[in-house]
Amino acid sequence: MENKIKSESLKRKQSTEVEIQNLPFHGDEKISEPKTKKQKNFSFMLQEVPIENLKKKNEKSNGEYEDAWNAYEWKSFIKSLRSDNAVEVLQQLLVEIKNKDIIAEYLENGGSALRIVEILDRSEDKKNSTLICSVFSVLRLVLLKVMSKFPLLENSTEQTCKHLMNSYGTIIKEMLIDSVTFREKKIALCTLAAIATLSIGMANEVLVLFTSLTNKQMDKLAGHSRFSEDKSVRKYFIHLFLAFFSHGKSHLIKMLVTSKGTIGCITRGLLYDDATTVVLVLTALQTNIVESDTIIKTLKIHTFNTQVLLDILSLYKWKGPKLNRNEKKRKFVNDFDEEDILSQSIKEDQDSVRNAVHAILLLLLTNHKLGVVFQDPSVGTSGYHCNELVFSVLKAIEKETYWKIKYVQDLASKILQACPDLVSPIMNLMSNLFHPTPSKIWLNTLQFLQEVIHNLNEVFSISPLLNLRQKANIIISMVFSNPVSNLIATDDCLCHHHPMIRFQGISVLYSCFLKISHLYSFMEQSGCTSQELIAFKEMISNFIYKNLNITSLLVKALQSGLDGEIYGISAPAAIDYYMILFDVFLAYFEVNSKTLYNEMDILSALINFNIDSVFSEINEKINLLNVKFIKLQLFLSPIQSPLIESEPKIKMLLNLLGSQPLAKSILKEILTSSYIFSENKEEVDVWMYCLLKDVNNIHVTKLFLDSLEKVINQSSEILLMITEAKQVALKELGSKQNLKPEIDWDELIQFSVNDKHVNNSDVKLVKIFNVSPLLPAVVMTLEEKPQVYTKEVKKFINNLFIHIFHAQLSIEGFYSLLQHSNVKILRKIKNYISDWTGEWEVGVSHITMFQKFTKIFEQNSVVSNVCNYLYKHENEDLPEMILDNDLSFLLLKMVFFHISQLAVKGDADEGILARGTRLIMHLFRSIMLETESDLPDIQRVLLNPILIDKFQPLQCRKSNNLTTIVLSLIKLCDGINGKENILAPYRQRMIINIKEALNKSNNDINNVWKSDILMEAFHLLSIPPTEAGLIIKTIMETPKKITSPWLDVVSYLLEVISASSITLTQDIIKKLPQYTNLHNSLALYLRRCPHQICLINQELLVKKQNKLSKLTELLLNFETDGKILLKLIENNRDNPEVVFPAMSAAKACINIPQCNLVKHHIKLIQIALKTKPHPSWLDENSKFIGKLIKEQGDMKCHKNMKEFVIKEWKSLPVTDTLLNIAEPIFAILDQQALLISMLVNPLKLLTTPDSFQRCETLCTRIKKLFGGK
Fold first, then answer.
1. Which SS3 state, helix, strand or coil, does residue 1148 take?
2. Is the overall model pTM greater than 0.85, yes or no?
3. Can you name the residues that pair with 67 across neighbouring β-strands?
4. Which residues make Cβ contacts (< 8 Å) with residue 1141, sequence separation at least 6?
5. Counting Cβ atoms within 10 Å, is residue 1095 exposed (0-12), middle (13-18) or buried (19+)?
6. Domain carrying residue 206
7. Cβ atoms of 525 and 519 closer than 8 Å
8. 791 alpha carbon, distance to own chain's centre
9. Has residue 263 got a pLDDT over 60?
10. Where is each URB1 N-terminal domain found (predicted)?
11. Deepest of 217, 627, 757, 1183, by most Cβ within 10 A of its Cβ?
């Protein structure tokens, strides 16, 4: 252990010494030449020269000679230190040390720091400058060597230093006054630094002396010389300052920073120090003060006051020491060439300094935990300024000279991100910098403004006192602050003659409008209702229209293009200019829709803009620009443009689908808004998927465009085809009894009037038949042009028709569209669809269907693999699928179509249902991971008439029962808006199922209730209390005897009603007590409605029982005359599980004639006490039983019970139950002292931590027996 401590101490001292050595001011003279093989390995070579007259030559084996001192010579040297000429010996030592590590040999041969200090002690003239300087110089070298190589001498050296500080502290302090020579101050500071580094104790001693210096003395010592930097002791003063941080002790640092002016005198001159010094000082301050958890924020604020922060801030403009700046004293031509004249080495040093400055200022001015910043919950609206100190720094940054430096922009942006309460004040303060000027400073300030706007979301996370609307208003005021509204969104900027000025101004506006769009999204995600969001958007639109109407300015910027004077700064690229201009148009129209209707005459120039007149070449950026221009034209067009006008745009977008992701969304928007998909917008997803699957295929594109043209030219014929198909679908629905619904589907959708989050008009049942006019147009196009199509066209047709078919409920209606077509390419599809229309041979036909389906799609494709798993896969593992959102939904509809149609035909066996459920859940989860809005997708499946019709939780599992799939999908609805609306038809279906089941025979009912999914259906459907009351009424009014499964349902529904305000009718209340299975749930209900207890038939509750029911217990709670209790005890006198809980519930001790309960049950009570664990009736009623024995038992009974407790004490577990019974008995016999002595003995065994709680309980009981004293 001792060796380990010595090793750690040596390691720490060596580390400290290396840090000191790396400082540029650690020694008196230059560092010695590099070590040779003849020299020993020393970490410090500071003025160490052997005395010539003590040298001797020792011959080595190879004939060479080396300098060495023997022990005798060292003894003579140490003795000479006690002589009268000791000063001359030290001076000779200091002058001649150059080539050898004499200090180490001195310590190895019995020397010490005390020998050196004793020279000063023996001197009569202790203020002799020569003596003091010589002693301190050698002492410093000894200290350094002890710390680096002799840890065992540290204790004795520390005692010597203490003696030195106590005896000569005044002399040392006098060496630091202004009138003494440079050499004396330098030696004193270096010696003090070495002493402070030696140990924590010595650092304390030196710190006391250090802090006793006046501010004027510190300023002198830390100041730079006006004449020569060689005459300044500043670097040695900093050396001493840093020595206090070497130990990392918080009490030392606190003493240092509480000394007024200490930090300030150091930071004041850092601008003229070399890079190494600056980085060392800033790193020390950051590590030991700013990042320290022990330095409180108040102390940090006093330490890093305004002046200190401004001194550190000025270091961003550091260009080297003062005397090295003569070469840079010249007038710069403009603000771009200042950095260019610096040498490469100065630039590297400048970067290191700026990095250090940036690191400490970011912590101080942006970190709420470690820095000097505070969070203002009111975001500056309270009038109380929380961050005045930080604001003083921002006011200094406002000066133009700082904005040439890239770090300043980042610092200011992060400050305002951490302190949004300062955004408005600093924006108003910096208004002059935002005035449009073609300069680097202006460009930097504009970039800073964009970053500030981008980071404004912090307002939402730090403002718990403000509501959502107040936060949004604050952000609006910040986004459209004075610089934006008065300087950027003006003619001076957007119509400036320099294109770069226009470009940057437009970029800032784009950031503003984009932030408003993000604000809308954030408000929606934060729980803002749709009405509130609409009102807020209207308010913003009105504000922008009245105060920021820049439509004409943007149009002028569009017309100006890149024309204008080019000087100072270069013009932006044409593609970038028009790209950001189109982006700002789109963002502006999105947040200010009034412009679209009120300024169309101004926007005509935008509508007629010709991109080809600006760009002759075609590349990816030009294509993206074209796509954005089409999107812009959609804003300016009517809601549903004539399809013939959209055809050129569609053609261009089809050609760009493969290269421009934005083209997909715009094409989808055009198709969705057109009249051909007005009644079937979901079909657009299928078309987009199929077009993207064969992107840029000229044959597929031509087929699509030809079909589109046919819709335009032959719309009446196509609409006639669709009308005839709908008639076929309705006829099919009326003819098939298994599809005919028992209830009106429109009445199933009962929406909650309290739900504000869902637009009820959007929630509709899936239509029986619904295709767009574009699909029949494809059939007509194929018939007119029956030429051989490519492989890609065949794939396109197969995917398109099959996926649209899978979205239909009517098979025959869809088949009628293809029935009369003889096109070869549709033959396989017709065969596949026709097989769904015929009668099936159950168990066989679906295999044939699977085989025909897989012929349409390529083997090993995702579609065929999913279908293969659904029909014939025996393994439960799902196939590996890499899916996008569009394909996932198409596969979901495909799987659901197969399962629902198999159920309709009665051929959906358990294996297919199980695999289908796994597939549907997997696909739904993949969709919900990709999209934020999961409600519409759930609706499309759950609001399907087939699924609702085949939801039969009261029936045994059959091949047409889809209850398991429904329940699995309902589980996915948790947490989404509109869940109640989706579940409404299934609850109605449940009621219908219950009515049907009640009309069957009892045997059939019992079979029905063997299903293990029934109660899960009740739980997941979250039956509302109103409907729960109706279901209870329906069940209880049946004339047949209600069996156990129905009672379980009633019991569950009673619990639902108990948590609501619903009240059951008197007739129902009178019937419920007839069934003992319902007593507990009924008791829960009656506790909320005690006025209905009088309706209970008491005779039903006093009969013989196995265990006291909650209903009987409730009745006893409200009894006043005890008649019910007497009857109950008479009928159950031999059953303690009824007698004692009943008497406890009634809170009465009644002597029943001819049957004393205590005598009757005393033996049973004793047996129960010996039972491990105790019966529940004994534990739950032990206090009452003790009271009963005390009040009803005679003296013989009391003694009998006491003797039993004493006899069985060691074997009985000392439980609360035992004590509750024993205490009243020992009390009536006046034997409390005996019971206390019996309780004390178990305490001796309760000595483990686990038994402390039990020990505490026993002590509480003993205290109670003592009368609470």
1. coil
2. no
3. 57
4. 1108, 1113, 1177, 1180, 1181
5. middle
6. 71-296+319-343
7. no
8. 49
9. yes
10. 115-444
11. 627
